[in-house]
């Protein structure tokens, strides 16, 4: 099997997911940059697109053969090409996810929850953001919780990722009324209110792409 | 977007090539990963000083590489902190066996990427210590923000930290001097116009013809408040008022006064503002014993300025006066 | 009009006060009439070099006053040549008994005012000789115009003429060197945006978002033609193409390449353009043995650049490399 | 008599004329600057206004008692305060005019023609401009010619200055279709066509002010 399916996902499936993520990020590059211009420095879309373009190039040069190795490739590529706050944070997330599923040749729903949780924990460990600080954590934490609930309820891979994606999107939208307390947007104080956090938004797009790929799998 | 460029995605690379050609006597530019080292480095037995950050702040940081200045600088993409592999490579290239100081400006991205690089350098048995500057009084320093930004104060901080390393101080001593500068420098900035990041193509914010942005950062982030454009004297009073009150600076203090242009401000305005700043400080009995006026830490073509004040003691003054031979700052050589 | 000023009519005076306070170690600023002299001058027995022109071109000319640089500079109102009484006073203050060279940029106003001042100085038994620079290839040199303008080439011309005086050349020798620079330097400029003279309050011209002005002068005069904004490589080819063809510069020539910002151009763009210029010259076998990149002769906040090329021989190179200690240019001291 | 009259003009009359010129220049400052922005560097109005403001201050401090001395005061003040091309040119004009009428205590129509002619010749000597170079000479020379004709025809002071002013104004307007060959506007080549020369315009205003004062004299 070379695609994610409903009960588990192998290395090729993870690659397909990452390719979809790259496409989504490219598609939303301008929007992410615009969001970052409102409350940051206007580079988030460009940073993420640069990173995932590099990831695609690496994958084209040779696809690793375990899910963990794919995630590690993504991690190291993002760390060395994205820069800014998002580079080390997403890099750490993928690195921790990779480590968390090190032995698995395919990822079942529980493994996906494990990977997501480890990724979120990595972001929190590096960035020290709490919920409602108006960061990507506000998309990641609802996503992790929803994924766990879906997996515990017996959901398949697609169901788990769908739950994660939906709640990430809600989490991203819910950053709008918040005042930023971490990252560049925090400099704005109350003026950060009324804008959606770019990092939370890219997290939501990323999970949406993974969910969509999983749903399309046979 | 009006810029003298070929392609928004290759601006930094092409400019680095220009730097390499224009300053071959002072610096060596490395590519993939990108970093800049002293042409005569590494200096064995000297503590090496490495800094960096997003591009678009030129001459920061490559313009300060050279004897009496930085040993290496790491340019990220425009307004984006560099990546750990760049910082690691620069750290390795600069290391002269006496340890390396990372001078990090306080932005989440810079902190995280330099942290990762330091861990990686540690694994290579390079003794790295980081010093972080957060001199921007426009930002509230509290557990509820990412902390104050590192802004104009970075220029005297670079100069003095590097001079301590150049005179032969060991790693701990250099770090101690560097932290003393951080403890004694404060800055606040303002903008008349925004700037446009090349790959974005859109101004970072918009300001009406009669508006200015007070408390601006150096990345085109919007500032603390938007107000009507006032006179130079009033602008200076707003910026320096916050600066003086914060440390606080007091009657009889000896200081370095630094009026910095944001890239698009003509120097006639900077000198005019400097004059207003001197009057402001004279009224408060604060002595200005050293000065710097010019575009030393910029935000692309942004029009505006920042004012930094550094409380000087004899040692900091001596280190400020010490020789330096870099593209952007040169004296005594 | 967005400027950090108090009152359009006092901009020059207030900026001069700032210069005096910021650079008290290098220069003395005189008022009524306004001029700037070396703090350690006049130097007895040395040929004195005096220049000046309208303000708004900072660091021209006051930023080049000091050891190895000018003995005096005379700032006019913004974009208006100084008056004869200013020039006379500066000439008298600079005179060290070995004669005075007036370095005059070719504009009708500057020529006329310096001419009058030279007559007045003559009446005071000061031996004054004027050298005029007219390096701007954008202007047709014919009896049907006021002749070519003096633009960016003035910077290496200042440096080299002053170095000849500093090494002890007599008046005739200094004048000969100075004329050799004029004969060997050519410049052309362009602008992305206009600038606004403070007392006028209106931009000197308007350019659409996709337009640039080729062959611009340094006073906000409109240029030779208005075209669509193109790439840095194409702009450089247009400017340098005219420059190289004019002298002409030839394969094997050693040159100084000077990419000058008009005041509002960030240095990342200047270094990018410098890189493009190096490629252009390399293709033609023209060697670049000395370089200068930065905002050295500006038009207030105008965005744009000029490119100058000076054909070097060994003596001009040595004089370019000689020490100078001024606010805007410093090396070897 | 303290004002210009119809047959001659004493020092006080010249002072009255110069004060009127200063007022006119101040009134047209923005327009002169705008004209100079089109084909020059946008400072002519400011330059002239700075000069005549200084002249007023000097006159307030003490009025000289011969026409020649008044003209000399104007000359030296313009030379030391105006700068640019206009400063030495107008300065020379007033200086030569002053010298030309050195001995006279009052200026009759022929003396006025002599002064105007000397002034124009001074401008030409300094600036080397020929007719139709699109400079102040294009206003001065028609003015001189008209003044001479009026004086030769027996016209009084007012008639002479009126003739000069009218032809100066026509001369200034006639600079519009010309291509500049002197001064800053010459850099523009053919692009200088279609704009009125600022210096010719200030000359016309200056003579208009003098004529108006003479006409109002009893
Ligand atoms: N301390 C943090 N913890 C978690 N996420 C953060 C933190 N700081 C910033 N972020 C996220 O990073 C995003 C900005 O990323 P990006 O624009 O690429 O980097 P930079 O802010 O350095 O320009 C923010 O929108 C936010 O979601
Ligand atoms: N060579 C010249 N002869 C006569 N008049 C001249 C000459 N050059 C310039 N002018 C006049 O000077 C006017 C410009 O004056 P002004 O703007 O004050 O000086 P600048 O050109 O130095 O800025 C022109 O409009 C023109 O009438
Ligand atoms: Mg950002
Ligand atoms: Mg950034
Ligand atoms: Mg002028
Ligand atoms: Mg003019």
TrEMBL record, chains A, D:
One of its GO terms (cellular component) is cytosol. GO terms for biological process: glycerol catabolic process. Residues 12-212 form the DhaL domain. Pfam families: Dak2. GO terms for molecular function: glycerone kinase activity. The keyword Kinase applies. InterPro entries: DhaK_L_YcgS, DhaL_dom, DhaL_dom_sf, Dihydroxyacetone_Kinase. The keyword Kinase applies. Coiled coil: none annotated. Keywords: Kinase, Transferase. NCBIfam families: dha_L_ycgS. This is Dihydroxyacetone kinase, L subunit. It comes from Nakamurella multipartita (strain ATCC 700099 / DSM 44233 / CIP 104796 / JCM 9543 / NBRC 105858 / Y-104) (Microsphaera multipartita).
From TrEMBL, chains B, C:
SUPFAM superfamilies: DAK1/DegV-like. Residues 7-329 form the DhaK domain. It catalyses: dihydroxyacetone + phosphoenolpyruvate = dihydroxyacetone phosphate + pyruvate. GO terms for cellular component: cytosol. The keyword Kinase applies. One of its GO terms (biological process) is glycerol catabolic process. One of its GO terms (molecular function) is phosphoenolpyruvate-glycerone phosphotransferase activity. Pathway: Polyol metabolism; glycerol degradation. Keywords: Glycerol metabolism, Kinase, Transferase. Pfam families: Dak1 (PF02733). InterPro entries: DhaK_1, DhaK_dom, Dihydroxyacetone_Kinase. Its EC number is 2.7.1.121. Homodimer. The dihydroxyacetone kinase complex is composed of a homodimer of DhaM, a homodimer of DhaK and the subunit DhaL. PANTHER family: TRIOKINASE/FMN CYCLASE (PTHR28629), TRIOKINASE_FMN CYCLASE (PTHR28629:SF4). This is phosphoenolpyruvate--glycerone phosphotransferase.
């Amino acid at each position: 099997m070379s695609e994610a399916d409903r009960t588990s996902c192998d290395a090729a499936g993870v690659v397909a997911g990452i390719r979809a993520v790259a496409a989504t990020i490219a598609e939303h590059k301008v929007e992410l940059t615009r969001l970052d211009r409102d409350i940051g420095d206007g580079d988030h879309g460009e940073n993420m697109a640069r990173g995932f373009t590099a990831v695609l190039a690496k994958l084209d040069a040779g696809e690793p053969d375990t899910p963990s190795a794919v995630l590690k490739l993504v991690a190291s590529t993002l760390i060395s090409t994205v820069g800014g706050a998002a580079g080390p944070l997403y890099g750490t997330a993928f690195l921790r996810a990779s480590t968390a599923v090190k032995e698995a040749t395919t990822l079942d729903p529980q493994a996906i929850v494990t990977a997501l949780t480890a990724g979120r924990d990595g972001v929190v460990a590096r960035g020290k953001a709490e919920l409602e600080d108006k960061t990507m954590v506000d998309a990641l934490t609802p996503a992790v919780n929803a994924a766990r609930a879906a997996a515990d309820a017996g959901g398949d891979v697609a169901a788990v990722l769908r739950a994660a994606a939906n709640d990430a999107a809600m989490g991203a939208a819910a950053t709008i009324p918040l005042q930023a307390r971490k990252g560049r947007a925090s400099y704005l104080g109350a003026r950060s209110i009324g804008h959606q956090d770019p990092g939370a938004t890219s997290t939501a797009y990323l999970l949406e792409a993974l969910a969509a790929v999983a749903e399309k799998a046979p | 977007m009006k810029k003298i460029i070929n392609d928004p995605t290759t601006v930094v690379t092409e400019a680095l090539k220009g730097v390499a050609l224009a300053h071959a006597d002072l610096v060596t530019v490395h590519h993939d990963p990108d970093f800049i080292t002293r042409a005569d480095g590494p200096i064995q037995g000297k503590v090496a000083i490495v800094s960096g950050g997003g591009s678009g702040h030129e001459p920061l940081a490559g313009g300060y590489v050279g004897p009496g200045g930085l040993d290496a600088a790491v340019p990220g993409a425009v307004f984006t902190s560099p990546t750990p592999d760049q910082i690691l490579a620069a750290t390795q290239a600069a290391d002269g066996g006496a340890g390396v100081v990372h001078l990090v400006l306080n932005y989440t991205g810079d902190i995280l990427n330099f942290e990762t690089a330091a861990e990686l350098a540690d694994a290579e048995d390079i003794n790295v210590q980081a010093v972080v500057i957060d001199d921007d009084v426009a930002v509230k320093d509290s557990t509820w923000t990412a902390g104050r930004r590192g802004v104009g104060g970075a220029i005297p901080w670079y100069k003095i930290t590097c001079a301590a390393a150049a005179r032969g101080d060991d790693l701990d001593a250099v770090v101690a001097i560097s932290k003393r500068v951080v403890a004694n420098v404060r800055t606040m900035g303002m903008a008349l116009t925004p700037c446009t990041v090349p790959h974005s193509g859109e101004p970072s914010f918009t300001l009406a013809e009669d508006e200015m942005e007070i408390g601006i950062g150096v990345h085109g982030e919007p500032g603390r408040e938007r107000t009507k454009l006032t006179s130079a004297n009033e602008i200076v009073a707003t910026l320096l008022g916050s600066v003086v009150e914060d440390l606080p600076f007091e009657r009889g203090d000896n200081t370095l006064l630094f009026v910095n242009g944001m890239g698009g401000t003509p120097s006639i305005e900077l000198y005019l503002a400097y004059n207003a700043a001197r009057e402001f400080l004279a009224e408060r009995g604060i002595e200005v014993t050293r000065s710097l006026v010019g575009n030393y830490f910029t935000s692309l073509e942004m029009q505006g300025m920042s004012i930094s004040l550094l409380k000087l003691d004899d040692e900091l003054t001596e280190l400020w006066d010490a020789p330096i031979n870099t593209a952007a700052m040169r004296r005594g050589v």
